Amino acid sequence: MVELTAESGALRLAAGGAPRSLVVAGDSEAGYGAPLLSALAGRHSSCPVLRLGSGVLPNWIGAADLVVVAGLDRDRDGELAILTDAAARRGTALLGVGRAGSALHERCTWARAPFVAVPAERSEGSALWSLLTPMLLLAGELRLTDDDLAGSAAALDATADLCRPDGESFVNPAKLLALQLGATLPVLVSDSPATAVVADRLRSGLARRAGIPSTLALLPEDIEDASAYLTGIWAPDSGERDIFRDRLDDAPPAMRVVTVRDEPAPDGRARETMRELLRRAEYAGVPVSDLVPEGATEGTDRIGRLAALIALTDFTCVYLGLAKNLQR
Asked: What is the model's pTM?
């Protein structure tokens, strides 16, 4: 996708410097581009990165903005084409990412806007990084982030090897996490805007692939909400917290805290509240799973670590979905 992005002329959109805003419109997969770019850019970004959901293009978007329209969902192809047409008529800088020959592709061609064609063999559920790569490369050219994609491919390959189907569950982190989450209500706790994107990806995968509901908490803001779950109706009762009980009679835990962390956490207060939440979970007898970038090495940069985390969540949800189908 790096070569395809360069060949499309997409990076020339950065020649005029940073736009007033970078707006990402797309389907559910491409929609992760906006929060991920915003988290990577941080508060020192020269322009805001916004996600546009379904509907029409807002009236304030104009020639000073840059719009990225991306997606592979055939059901939304017409809607994305209309958004592309509206952006082109307003004179915005425009980039399209999607299937060759789609309505989105046709409208980008009409508008003389660069279009990055995702290879035909990539399915909707496995094309996340094909959709995100052009956005990340463009953000780098705009100097919104200083992250390099070079380590991402290596981190993804390493995670795929760790989570391969023939790996035993005690050495396969995705299978282990799937076993832990199979019959629980997960509370997905993240410690930064970047890991919050990973947590939201896991929430969506659990719902779509395995039908498992979950809830999100971003620290430090949501510490009290997350702590309230530990004493709610899903929490262990006092008998389950008895250290002298016969654990062979224990039922599977009804709730599990899943922490999504990337070391080092950028916010010192987030680190402190994470430690406090883990202390409260231990006191309440609620089990904890720690989601870390297993496929990342010591020298892997931030985007590589996030790629490893996202890959781990995707493998976990696939294994849960397979287990659900086998139980039918």
From this structure: 0.88
CB within 8 A of 89, min separation 6: which ones? none
Which of 160, 158, 136, 167 is closest to 149 using CA atoms? 136
Indicate whether 108 and 247 sit together in one domain: no
Task: Report CA 302 to chain centroid distance, whole Å.
Answer: 14
Residues 214, 207: Cα–Cα separation, whole Å? 8
The reply to whether 90 and 212 lie within a common domain is no
Residue with tokens 């090897």: 161
Tens digits of residue pLDDT in 262-309: 866 566 888 899 999 999 999 888 999 999 887 666 667 888 899 999
Percent of the chain with pLDDT over 70: 90
Q: Which residues form the domain of 49?
A: 2-141
Residue 29 structure tokens: 């997969």
Distances (CA, A) of 36 to 22, 59, 128, 198, 205: 12, 25, 12, 9, 17
pLDDT at position 144:
87
The verdict on 104 and 175 lying in the same domain is no
For 152, the token pair is: 């991402």
Domains contained in the chain, number:
2
- Kindly report the CATH number assigned to the domain that includes residue 182: 3.40.50.10490
